[in-house]
C-alpha cells in the first residue's frame, strides 16, 4: 500500500465515522439515564431530509444543521411522551419510531430527490494540515468533523466530571432511589432523550449535507443501527465510542479500498463488513455477563412511574 | 430521658395534624395526628399496610397528602419534595436502600446535597471521615457501594443524613437487615443522636427493639391512629395487642420435632458467583431429615439466593454428586424433574418467581401442579379452578376469586396462596424463603401452622429467613450462612440468639474453617 492510499483510507474513515459518532454520543447519554431508544435510524433519516430541505431552501448549510437537530428532538419527544409519560414498551416504540421516520422522510423528501447543494467547505487547520499523511487525513476536514470530536470531549467531561453526569448515572442505575432523594427522574430522562434526538438529527444531516450532499430515500442505510451497536460495543464509555466510530468507519470503507487494490471479492459481501463486525462485537460482549452487568446502566429499558413507589 | 425531654422546650419539633391520604381503593392515612419532641426517639408501629410508610413518605415529601397540616418547629410547612424536606433538616433511611451501586460512597452522598450545601461543606471526604469518628460509623468514602455489606450500606445512608446536619431522622425498618451485633451498634448511634437533640422516627416490626430504645410509640392500624404509648411501660405483648386489635398468639412456642431419616443432603457444595454482585458458595454441607425443619439464618445477600437456586435447579449448572434427594443424585436434573421427585420451592420473590404477575390464580396453580390436571396434553380447567378455589378457602387468601391476577393480591395474601400451592403437592422436601416476610401477624400465624403440619406429616423443610425470632420459633435445627459459608448445624434448643447472631456475622469461618456439621 502506498502512502497516498493510507491517507485516503484514514480520511474516509474519519468522514464515515463522524455521523456514527454524533448518533452514538446522543444515544449513550440517553442510555445512561436508562432509556433505550431504538429509533435512531428514523431520527437520522428525518434529520437528513429536513436538514437537506432547510439548507436547500435557505441556501445556508448552517440552517440545515439547526433544522435537522430540531426535527431530531421533535421526533424524540414523540418517543419520550409514549415511553416516559405513558410507560410504553421502549423497544417496540423505538422500532416504530424508526419505521415512522423512514416512511415520513421518504414522503416529504420526494420533491428534493436529485437536487444537490454545495455543502461545507473543508477547514484546514493551520500548521497541522501541512503534516505528512495525517495532515491530509485528519486535519483537512469539514467543520462538523471537528465538532464531533469536541462534542465527544464535552459529553465525556459532563458524564464523568460533573454533578449532572452523576445525576444521569444515578437515574439510569436506580430511578426509584433517585426519585426518593429528590431527583426529577422523568425530567432528566426527557432531556436525555431530546439530546439523543438532536444528535441523531445532526448525524443524519451530516449524511445529506456533507457526506453525500444530496437526499436519497433511506440514505443512512442502517447507520443508526450501527451507532446503537457502537454504544454497547463501547460499553457505554465515551472514549471507546470515539475509537469505535472511526474503526467502524474503516470497516465501512474497506470494500472500496479492497476493490481498488484489485481483490476480486463481491462488493456486496464486503459491504456487509461493518454489520458483521457489529454482530461479532455484540456476541463477544454479551458472552461476558459479568462485564455486561457491571457496565450497563442497571435500569436500561425499564419504565419508571413515579406514582408507583416501590 | 423523659425528664430531660421536658426540660428542653415545650415546643414540638414536628406536629402532624389530620394527615389524610387516599389511594385508589385504600385509605392509607385517615386523619393522623402525632407530634415529636427534639431528641425523642419515636416508634411508628403497625402491621403491613397500616399506613406507616405512607406517613413517613409524607413527612419526607415523597408523597403529597390530600389534606392535613405539617407543623415544623412551630411553623406550618408544605413539604413538596425530598429536597425541601432535607432543607428543613429531615433525613430518611429507606427500607430498601436508595443507594447507587455503581457510584462511590462519597458520590452517593454528594448526590443528596444541594450545590450550596456542598460548597459550605468544602472537603466532603474529610467531613465524612470526621463524622465516622464522632459517631463510630465506619465508612470509607472512596469505596464503591456494590462492594459494601448491607450493614455498611445502612451506615452510608445514615451518614448521608448526618452530613447535612439533620434534625429529624426517619428510619424505615432499619434493623430488619442487620445482625444482632449490628443492631446494637445502630442503637448506640441513635442514642448519641438523640442526646444531641436530633429527633428520630423509627419504624419497626420488632417489638422488643421498640421497648428497648424508643421513648414513645404511635400505633397505626388500617390507616387510622389507634393509640400512643410509652414503650418502656409496656411489654411486647401489650403493644402487639394494640397493633393487631384482637390478641394474636405471639410466642406460641411450638413443639420441636426430631427427624431420623436423612432425605436430602448437600455435600461439599462449591459454586462460583454468577454475577458481580453475587456470592459464591463455599463448601456448603448439610442434611435434612424427614419430619424436621432446618432453619438457615443470615443477613440477605450472603449466599441464600444462590443456595436456593442451586438446590431448586433454577441455577442449571451441575455440581457433581453434591445434592442428593432420597439417596439419588439430583444435581444433573432440571428444576421440573426435581419437582417431580418431590421437591417444592417457595422463592423469596413472590411476583415474578413464585407467581406470574399477569396470570390468574388458577393459571398460577397449574404452573407447579400440572400432573393431575393435564391429560393427553389438554388442561382440565374445571379441575384447576376447583383446586384454586379450595386453596383460596383453605388459606383464607383475600382476593376476588380464582380469576384474580396474581399481581392484584397483596404480598401477604399472595404468599399464603403460594405456600398453599406448594404444600398442596405433598412435597418430600420443601425449600422456603422468608415465608412470612411482609405478611401481617394473622397470616404469619396461618403460614406457621401450615409449615408445622407439613413437617408433622413427615416432610423435610428448609427454612431460609432473615427473621431470627421466627427461625427460633419454627426450626428444629439451626444454622447460619455468611459470605457463602454455612455454619455448623445445631439443635435449636441447644443454641442461643447470640450464638446464631455471631455466626451470621461469620465468626465460625475462622474458628472452624472446614464447617463440619455438628451432630445433633
UniProtKB/TrEMBL annotation, chain A:
TM annotation in the entry? 6-30, 42-59, 65-88, 95-117, 137-159, 190-212, 224-257, 269-287
Gene Ontology MF term list: transmembrane transporter activity
What CDD domains would the database entry show? TM_PBP1_transp_TpRbsC_like
For membrane topology, the record states: Multi-pass membrane protein
Q: Name one Pfam family in it.
A: BPD_transp_2
Respond yes or no to whether keyword Membrane is given for this record: yes
Record's keyword terms, sorted: Cell membrane, Membrane, Transmembrane, Transmembrane helix
Q: Which GO terms describe its cellular component?
A: plasma membrane
- Top-rank taxon: Bacteria
Any idea where this protein resides?
Answer: Cell inner membrane
Identify the InterPro entries for this entry: ABC_transp_permease (IPR001851)
Chief localisation class: membrane
User: Which PANTHER family does its entry note?
Assistant: ABC TRANSPORTER PERMEASE PROTEIN, SUGAR ABC TRANSPORTER INTEGRAL MEMBRANE PROTEIN-RELATED
Q: What is this protein called?
A: ABC transporter permease
Organism source for this protein?
A: Marinomonas piezotolerans
